[in-house]
User: Fold this.
Amino acid sequence: MKRSCGSSVRDAWPLLLLPVQAALMVGLGRLVTGPASRHWPLSAEGSSGRALEERRAAAATGVSGWISALAGTQAVVGLTALCVVGLLVLPRVLPRVLPRVPPRVPPRALPRAALRTEALFLAVAVAAQSAVFLVVTAFVDRPRPAVGHLDAAPPTSSFPSGHVGASLALYGGLAVIAWLRMRGPWRLAVAGCLLLIPPAVGLARMYRGMHYPSDVAGGLLNGAATLLITGCALLYGRGSGPEPDRAARPGPAPASRTGGPVLVVRHPHGCPDELADRLAAVPRGHGHRDPRWILTTAERPCGALAEEISTVTPALVVVCGGDGTVRACADVLAGTRIPLAVAPCGTGNLLARNLGLPMDPAVALEASLAGDSFGIDVGRVRGDGLPPTRFTVMAGAGFDAAMVRDASPRLKSRMGWAAYVLSALRHLRDPGVRLTVRIDGGRRQRRRARMVVIGNVGTLQGGLPLLPSARPDSGRLEVVLFDPRGAPGWLAAAGYLAARLLRHRTPTAPGPAGRRGSMG
Assistant:
C-alpha cells in the first residue's frame, strides 16, 4: 500500500451555494426594509439608536472607535493577507501548533504545506463574504439610522453590516483554525476571544450610529453562512494531519517499482475516460511505460486482476475506484507483497482518507508513486450467505449495512457521501438485531444493537472518529455497537459522536517513512 498526505479542492462544490446565500440575503433585506419594517421589533429600531446616542461618553466613544476599526476595510484586507502568509510559514516557527504525528516520521517532512488548506479557507471566506455583501447592497437600499454618525458613512446600504460580516469571516475563520489546529487549554481561550470580536464590532457600530440592530444581525448571519459554506467546501472531510515536504522525502522511488509491469484496475463509472487519461500520464512519469488496464464490472469488482497476477507478477497495482473496488483488489493481493496504490475515485474513499491521501485522484497517485510502501492489515468476514472475503476499511451489520446497501447509485454519483445520509434517514426506525459477540477468544456475550461495525480504520467522512483506536497497521480490529432507542437515543448518539469529533480531529496515518511492504 502506498500513502502520502495532501489536500485538494475536488469536494469544493458547496461553494456553489454562495449565490443561493446571496439570493436569500437579498430576500431577507427586502423583507426587513419592506413589509416587516412596520412591525415590532423592527419598528422600534430607531428608538434604540437614539437611546445609544443620548448615552455617548468620551471613553466609550474612543473604545468603540478602536473596535470598529478592527473591521474596517483596510484592517480586514491587511490582517487577512498577514494571517494567510502567517499560516503558510507558521509551522516552521511554531511546530507545536501542528497536530500530533507518529514519532517515527522525520521532523523535516512536516512543515511546508501543513496549513495551506487553512490559509485558502481564510482567504476564500473573507473574499466570499465581501462578494455576497456587495451583491446584497446592490439590491437592498436602506439608509443609515437618523442619528449622529461618528464615522464617515460609506455609499452602501445599511443592511447588512459589512463591518460585522467581514469581522465574522476573518476572526471567526481564525477561531475555526485555532480550534482545529491548536492543542491544550489555549485552544478554547484563543477561539473564544476571536469569536467575541464580531459581536463587539456590532455593538460598536450601533453605538456610533452606523447601523440598526437588524443590520448587525444580518451581518452576523451573512458571515456565519459564508464560514459554514467555505468550511464545508475546504475543511470538511479533510484530514488535518500535516502534508509532507516533497523535497525532504527520499529521492527516487525504489527500482523495483519501475522494472515490472503495472496493472491499473479501473472502475468505469468512478473513473471515466477523461480522468483515466489524466491518471495514465502519472505512471509514465515514473518509468512505467505500458500499464495494463483492467476494467471492473458489477459481477467482477476487481475485473480480471486475479487472472493477470496468476500469469505475471506486477511491480505495482493501481486501483482507480472507491472503497469497494479497493476492497476487492486487496482481497486478491493480500499476502502477495505486491504494492497497491490508491487513486480515490469513489464516494466515501474512507481508506484513502484514513491513510491521509489527497482526494484528487491524480494528485494522490502522483504522491503515492513518489512515496514509500508499507503494510496494512486486512480483516476477513464470512457468513449470512456471503463467501469468505477480506476488507480493508469496515464491515457492518444492521443499520450501517442497510444504509450502504440502499444508497442510490445515481445519487452517489451526483451528491457523493451525502447520498448515504439520505439512505440513513430511511432506516432510522429499523428494528434492532440480536447478536453474539466474542472478542479475542473470550466468552460469548449476547447483545442487542441497531448497528455493529468492525473496523480496520476508524475515521469516517468529516474526520468523525467512529473507532478512534483503530489503525490499519496495528494487527487488530476494533468493534462498536450502537443501539439508540427513539429520537432521544439518536440525539444522544449524535451528541456522543460530535463530542468525539471535537476531541479527535486528527486521523492517524500509518507507515513511517522508509518502510516498504504490502498488505498482509
